[in-house]
Amino acid sequence: QDKKKKKKPKKLRRAVGLVVTDPKTQRILMLSSRKREGKFVLPRADCGEDEPFEQTAQRILLHEACVQTLTPAHRIGVFVEANKKGKTIAHHCMYQVDCHKELLPPPDDHRQRVWVTFEEAQHYTEDRNMSHVAL
């Protein structure tokens, strides 16, 4: 008997990205990329199991961006990622928030945080479609 193994359907990936701006200078916070040396990216992370997008955004603000804010994050939009067959494989929710106060990063965090102009942010995200569109 030749039984075909059924593949378990992959879980839909859920991620959150942030456009953190400094209202005084109109600059945008970017982090050094973990995967691509010399590149900068917007703060982002995958959602935890059953973690709401808004809760993930708060976690990213504190742990990735290391900023405090007085205003809630404003949802820019949800971007859908599909595979080559057109099947939805991910939802990426993008938020915008104004920085109120920078916090010290944890001692074991080696990512560089830089505040860049809108034009620089556009340049850094040229090959990152969702981040580029969110800006």
Automatic annotation (TrEMBL):
- Say which domain of life the source belongs to: Eukaryota
InterPro entries the record matches: NUDIX_hydrolase-like_dom_sf (IPR015797), NUDIX_hydrolase_dom (IPR000086)
Q: Which GO terms describe its cellular component?
A: cytoplasm; nucleus
**Gene3D superfamilies xref list:** Nucleoside Triphosphate Pyrophosphohydrolase
Determine if tRNA processing is one of this entry's keywords: no
Which Gene Ontology molecular function entries are recorded, alphabetically?
A: hydrolase activity; metal ion binding
Which interval of the chain is the signal sequence? none
Please report the stretch or stretches of sequence annotated as the Nudix hydrolase domain.
Answer: 11-135
Keywords for this entry? Answer: Hydrolase, Metal-binding
Name of protein: Nudix hydrolase domain-containing protein
Q: What is the lineage of its organism?
A: Eukaryota, Fungi, Fungi incertae sedis, Mucoromycota, Mucoromycotina
